[in-house]
Design a protein that fits this description.
By secondary structure, the chain is an alpha/beta fold. It folds into two domains: 4-26 and 254-440, Enolpyruvate transferase domain (UDP-n-acetylglucosamine1-carboxyvinyl-transferase, Chain); 29-250, Enolpyruvate transferase domain (UDP-n-acetylglucosamine1-carboxyvinyl-transferase, Chain). Helices cover 30% and strands 22% of the residues. The protein is built from 14 helices and 23 strands. The strands form six sheets. It has a four-stranded mixed sheet with strand order 2-15-17-16. Strand 18 (320-322), helix 11 (330-336) and strand 19 form a beta-alpha-beta unit.
Length: 445
Amino acid sequence: MNTTYKVPTIYNKVEINNTPLVVQVPGSKSITNRALLLATLAKGTSVLEGVLFSDDSRHFLKCIQDLGFETFVDEEKRIIKVTGLGGRIPKQESSLYVGSAGTAARFLTAFLGLSTGVYHMDASAQMRRRPMAPLLTSLQELGCEISYPNEAGDKLPNTGFFPFTLKGNGFRKNQITVNIDHSSQFLSALLIASPLCREDFTTTLEGSHGMAYIEMTCKMMDQFGVYSEKKPDGTYVTPAGQQYKALHYQIEPDVSAACYFYAMAPLLNIPVLVSHVHYNSLQGDVGFLRILEQMGCRTVDKSEGILVNPPANGTFKGITADMHACSDQAITLAAIAPFADSPVTITGIGHIRYQESDRVHAIATELTKLGIRCVESTDSLTIYPGTPTSGAVDTYEDHRMAMGFSLIGLRSPGIVINDPMCCRKTFENYFDILNDIVNKTAPVR
């Protein structure tokens, strides 16, 4: 793949014969990385099938291997075997590099910080800019000692961010409060590590962002044999004495990846089916399909996967959508919004300013460059209908900007994606699949 990708325009070149475009996507990043850590914490050998192999998951896997855990990897068959030691870590000291993987950064930090040992943690330049302070503060309150290298000479170290060294001393208390305004991963990380406490462990959260991901975490913990109960007051209590169990575990297809293709239904006026994606998914991004329904699409959960049909009249509606529960799809919705029949307002997305890029500002900047009126607020965007002009889209080292904004070029000519392979983070063959779709589409007869 070159450093740029010119998106082929296929709108009005797709044969409309009610035969859906059928797509297969890789395994879920969110589920893959949770399963890797849960398997590491379990006692015995877990077999994970349908694994996503991407930059993020490879960094996570490499960290587990660097900690001394025994693994077997077959990328072609998408299988990883992990032999867990029931919460014990083989190496009492190690240096780990998490790359740009937020899940690895937060989940491993909690596990190591609440274990016993000394662990030197570093990350990519992008991950070094992303917040860690709420989690690190919680770990310090629980007994972890954290130190930062003084990389800036006489300046103070950059506390609350990578790099840092953890000196874990186990749990010195059995309750904590964590703020999740910037990332739900802080709470997920503490919940996954909570069975290591010898007492009932209580986690209180501040904020309500990303609760669908918290639900995924709790469901997966339960699948691996540990129950954490959400109390009426919103706290989570993990009873003492529980142990994760090794599993043969099938990972779901990545619904976040599927949504780029589902968005083609209203965008290109074609039916789309993504194999093995269903409404009973653990993944909150399945809620994006309900947003497409509000815009006029019709969905059917078939045995093969969810089928999204385009609006009956070929025109989709502008809506106001609260996307706090499926915020990874804010870019996807923003990319198709200019082609709606009225403005699209996306709310509940202030926290995505702290992800791989300031996504709210990145969306507004790139749409404006393409001639689309876009009004940005602290936690919302309003996008007005218009015809995008040709131009190059900057992706800010953000995989979702690369994949989401490619959709615009399928309908409007002259769209070029800069640094398309930043999508390696989660979906390294996205543009290969996009090219296959282009090559398979037939001219209108």
